[in-house]
Design brief:
Elements lengths: L1 H47 L3 H9 L3 H14 L11 H6 L17 E4 L5 E3 L1 H15 L7 E5 L5 H11 L2 E4 L20 E4 L6 H10 L3 E5 L10 E4 L5 H19 L7 H5 L6
Length: about 280
């Protein structure tokens, strides 16, 4: 009888292990299918949207009149909210942080409050500020050596490098080496607890590596982004130099304040000249 019980127990363990492996394989398969479907959707979006150059040009042409008009609209929409924003509303607008794209994904629809006459989506600035506060509260849980930032888009290189300079957080611009956090055999392999990306599509290699490790991801997300695997997001224009600079300036300033790191940088150091070109 004892031998029979042991055989039954052994068989039960094998079946449980087989079931677990099968479940894991099915989950991996689903993730891969989801990633493929996401790529198809993103490619379709890119074909129907404005180019990055066009968005950069629109962002740079915001006039003083545009600033006044948008501030008035924001105050009317958020008349009951008297909370002071992280930076003056005027600076948010000058940096074109609120300008989205012509495409609005289902994931980002809730952050948009209107479309402009030219078809561009406009992101609710109050929600940008609110999500930034939550992103800061999340970011300060980690020490600089536990975090890295990726910004492959050229428009964000200056801001990303400044972010690294003031916070001490490792930053990758131009190119992120795939597998650098997942492949132990790589010479430059390192471990991190949090990944910050400036665009889920452009910085997809870092996103995929982090997702495989099941670690958290903080991302800047525009209206044409999908937010698969994103833990915390900041809805914003992530295509233009001024907007990326503005968001990274706020994140780094508040991070340094909370961590008691000296911070002497100005918004212009990240975003460049705020006046219309």
């Amino acid at each position: 009888m004892a031998g029979t019980d042991k055989n039954k127990e052994s068989k039960s363990k094998k079946e449980s292990l087989k079931s677990l492996v099968q479940e894991l394989n099915e989950r991996i398969s689903k993730d891969e299918e989801s990633e493929i479907d996401g790529k198809k959707l993103i490619e379709e979006i890119k074909d129907s949207d404005l180019s990055e150059k066009e968005i950069e040009e629109i962002s740079d042409k915001i006039s003083k009149e545009d600033v006044k008009k948008e501030i008035k609209n924001i105050k009317l929409k958020n008349s009951s909210d008297k909370k002071e924003t992280l930076i003056p509303l005027e600076d948010y607008i000058k940096c074109a942080v609120h300008l989205g794209t012509k495409v609005i994904t289902p994931h980002m629809r809730k952050y948009v409050y209107k479309r402009r006459a030219d078809g561009l989506a406009v992101i609710n600035t109050a929600l940008i500020d609110e999500k930034l506060r939550k992103a800061i509260d999340f970011l300060i849980k980690y020490e600089p050596e536990q975090v890295y930032l990726v910004c492959k888009r050229e428009a964000g290189w200056i801001a990303a490098e400044k972010f690294q300079e003031v916070t001490g957080i490792k930053t990758f611009t131009k190119k992120y080496p795939p597998g650098i956090t997942t492949n132990l055999a790589l010479e430059d392999f390192f471990e991190a607890e949090l990944t910050i990306i400036c665009d889920p599509w452009i910085d997809k290699n870092a996103l995929n590596d982090t997702a495989r490790l099941k670690k958290p991801i903080l991302s800047l997300c525009d209206t044409n982004n999908y937010t698969y695997y994103i833990t915390r997001l900041v809805p914003c224009n992530n295509k233009s130099r001024k907007s990326i600079g503005c968001i990274l300036y706020i994140l780094s300033r508040e991070y340094c304040r909370k961590k008691k790191i000296s911070f002497k940088a100005k918004l212009e150091d990240f975003a460049g000249n705020l006046e219309s070109q």
